[in-house]
């Protein structure tokens, strides 16, 4: 008896993965979700620690200023196209309220990041994001409000 190995619509349908099994891709320009923002911030802190260590190996006095310099300017660095390394990894970008990249736009980039270098203030920023996450413009932390910026998703 010969076995029939031909695919029928029923067998094809059974082998195709359900769309629910893949994570949704957010449209470009959508406000960044909290989990991606936290992951990007964590990666940026690891980068700052690495910069501090490397600069400290060159000269012990350079470590802390180098890390703070990265943390303040990370969203405005032209060679990163206006994304911090953490944001680049998770496909996020800080932009002004009109949607323009902060690449080379140092003032809002630094203003939005000043609260992140003040001890314990990042925790306050996180609490604000968690409390406001379901409100319009709720994913804007105080630094974003001061600098008139937002964090959006990008697909590159």
UniProtKB/TrEMBL annotation:
Localization, UniProt: Membrane
InterPro entries attached to this UniProt entry: RDD
Record keyword Transmembrane helix present: yes
Residue ranges, annotated region (Disordered): 1-28
Domain (RDD) ranges: 32-148
UniProt topology in membrane: Multi-pass membrane protein
Biased composition (Polar residues): 1-10
Transmembrane intervals: 38-58, 110-131
Keyword check for Hydrolase: no
Keywords: Membrane, Transmembrane, Transmembrane helix
A Pfam family the protein falls into: RDD
This protein's name: RDD family protein
Organism expressing this protein natively: Luteolibacter algae
């Amino acid at each position: 008896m010969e076995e029939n190995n031909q695919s029928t619509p029923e067998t094809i349908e059974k082998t195709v993965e359900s769309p629910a099994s893949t994570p949704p891709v957010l449209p470009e320009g959508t406000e960044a979700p909290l989990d991606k923002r936290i992951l990007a911030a964590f990666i940026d802190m690891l980068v700052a620690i690495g910069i501090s260590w490397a600069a400290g190996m060159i000269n012990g006095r350079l470590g802390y200023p180098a890390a703070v310099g990265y943390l303040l300017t990370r969203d405005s660095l032209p060679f990163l196209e206006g994304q911090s390394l953490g944001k680049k990894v998770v496909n996020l970008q800080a932009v002004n309220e009109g949607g323009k990249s902060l690449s080379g736009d140092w003032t809002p980039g630094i203003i939005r990041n000043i609260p992140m270098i003040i001890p314990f203030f990042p925790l306050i920023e996180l609490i604000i994001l968690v409390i406001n996450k379901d409100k319009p413009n709720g994913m804007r932390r105080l630094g974003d409000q001061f600098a008139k910026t937002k964090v959006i998703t990008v697909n590159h």
